[in-house]
Amino acid sequence: MSLPTPPPSQNPAVRSSRPRIGLLGIMQPLYDAMIPGITEHQAAYAQRLAEGLSEVAEWTVAPPVRGREDAESAIRDFEGADLDGVLVVMLTYGPSIRVTRALTGTRLPVALANTQPDPAVSASWNMDDMTYNQGIHGAQDTANALVRAGVDFDVITGDWQSQEFAARVDRWARAAHTVSALRRLRVGVFGYPMNGMGDARVDETAFLRKLGPEVHVIAPGTLHRTMADLPEQAVSDLLAWEDGAFDVDERLSKEEREDHARMQLGIEHLLEESGCGAYSTHFDAIGEDGRFARLPMAAASTLMAQGYGFAGEGDVLAASIVYAGHRLAGDGHFTEMYAMDFPSDSILMSHMGEGNWRVAREDEQARLIKRPLGIGGLADPPTILFRYRPGPATLASLVSLGGERFRLVVAEGEVLDSPELPALEMPYGQFRPSSGVRGCMDAWLRAGGTHHMVMNSGHIAQDWKVLCELAGIEYAPV
C-alpha cells in the first residue's frame, strides 16, 4: 500500500528543491608562463567535477579565481543568485590572502573540498602533473585562514570520482541548503504560546540573529475570517482528496469535515500569504478565542505532509527544527516522548493528534477519525490516525541555552514493529534508542533536550552534525 500524495502547496517557502551550490575553483597566475593554457586546463577539471556531482546538487561554476577581485566577484554572484553554499576547490595552489576576504565575509555556508584531478601519484608524472595536483597545500593555507577568522566550514577530503566523496558532498550540500532555508524562514504563531512551558521559550531576536527564523504572530480572528471567505469548491476538492487518501470514519458528519477543511485551507492561505514555511498553534489560543468549533488536528498532519514545519503549543523552536528536518532528510515529523517501556527498551512517541502521515506504515491505510478530545474544551477534532513505519529513525531537539547559544540534541534508533494500541486515537510508534532507554534519557536530560522534537526516518545523526557545524551551534549526540 503506497502513501497518498499530499495536495500540492503554492507556497514557495515549502516547495521542495535541490541544493544549489556554487563551485569556487582557486588558482593563481604564477604558473601561466611555465604551463601555457593551465587556466583553461584546470577550468575543464572544475567543470568535470561539477558534472560528476550533478546528482547531488545544481551547480554554478565560477571562472577560475586568480586573484582577490575574481574571488570577491564570484562570491557576489553566488549570493546574488541566492545559492545555498560554496564548495571551494583548489585548482592549483592558491594563496589564501587572495580569497580570505571573500570567504570570511560571505553569508553562504562554505565547504573546502580537499581533492585533486588525479587520484594517484604516477611514475609518469612531470612538473605539469605535479602542478595540476598540488591543491592540498592551497587547502591547508585557506583552511588556516578560515580557522583564524572563526568561520564555520566543512572539510571533505577524497577522490572526487568516488562514491564516498559524492556522499559527503551530498551531506554537506543538504545541510547547507537547510541552513540557508532556516535563514529565510518565517514561523507563524497563531495566538500565543502555552503558559508555563519553559523549554519552548526563546529570545526571538537572538534566534533570528543566530539561526535566521523570524517569528510572525497571526491573530486567531484572521484565521476565522479567512475560513469564512473560502470558496466552496476549495473545500469540496479537499474533502474529495481525503476520501481517496484515507479510510474516513463514517461517524464524521459533513459539518465536522467541512469545518476541519476550512481550518486547514485557512491556515495554509495565511501561511502562504505571510511567507511562512512553518507554524505553531496552541489549543488554548484556539479554544479560548470563542469563535472556533474544534482544534485543527488533521490540518497539522496534512500541512506537515506538504512540507510545512509544525509544532504544538506555540513552540517556534520545534516548528523550525521540523522544517529543517524536511529540508535535510525529507518528511520531518513532529512528536514527543510520552512514556518509557522498559521491557522493550523503547519509548512511546506521540502527540495530541498532529503527525506527518508521510512516516506512516505502508501496510496500513491512515484513518481520518472522529475522536473526542477534552483539551481545548471544543468539539471532537477530526484526526488522522496512523502508526509509525518500523525501521531506522532519528530524533532531534533544538535547545535554547540563552542568548545566541543553541544546541541540537540528537538520538538515533529504531521504530519497532510493536503491537497495536487500539485505544490510542492519535499517531504513535515506539522508538528504541541505539544507546538504550536509560543511557539515551540520562544523556538527553543532562543535555537539556526539550520535550518537543522532530523525527526523521533513517539514521541521519551525521547529517545533523554537519548542519550544526555550518550553523555554529552545539551538537549533542545521545
Gist of the model:
With about 475 residues, this protein is an alpha/beta fold.
Q: Give the % helix.
A: 25-40%
- If strands are numbered along the chain, what order do they take across the biggest sheet? 11-12-17-16-15-18
- Mind describing the biggest β-sheet? 6 strands, antiparallel, barrel
Helical stretch count? 15
Beta-sheet strand percentage?
15-25%
- Which residue ranges are poorly predicted, with pLDDT under 50 across at least 5 consecutive positions? none
Oligomer: single chain
**Whole-angstrom Rg:** 25 Å
Structure classification = alpha/beta
Overall spatial form? elongated
Distance between the first and last residues' Cα: 34 Å
**Please, how many domains?**
2
Number of strands: 19
Q: Could you tell me the mean pLDDT?
A: 96
Query: What's the architecture of the largest domain, going by CATH?
Result: Alpha-Beta Barrel
- CATH topology name of the largest domain, in short, is L-fucose Isomerase, Chain A, domain 3
CATH class of the largest domain: Alpha Beta
Enzyme class: isomerase
GO biological process, one term: L-arabinose catabolic process to D-xylulose 5-phosphate
GO molecular function: L-arabinose isomerase activity; metal ion binding
Protein name: L-arabinose isomerase
Describe the structure.
The structure is a single chain. The protein is α/β, with parallel strands linked by helices. It has two domains: 20-182, Rossmann fold, CATH 3.40.50; 185-477, L-fucose Isomerase, Chain A, domain 3 (Alpha-Beta Barrel). The protein is 38% helix and 21% strand. It is built from 15 helices and 19 strands. The strands form four sheets. It has a six-stranded antiparallel beta barrel with strand order 11-12-17-16-15-18. Helix 9 crosses helix 10. The chain is elongated and about 80 Å long.
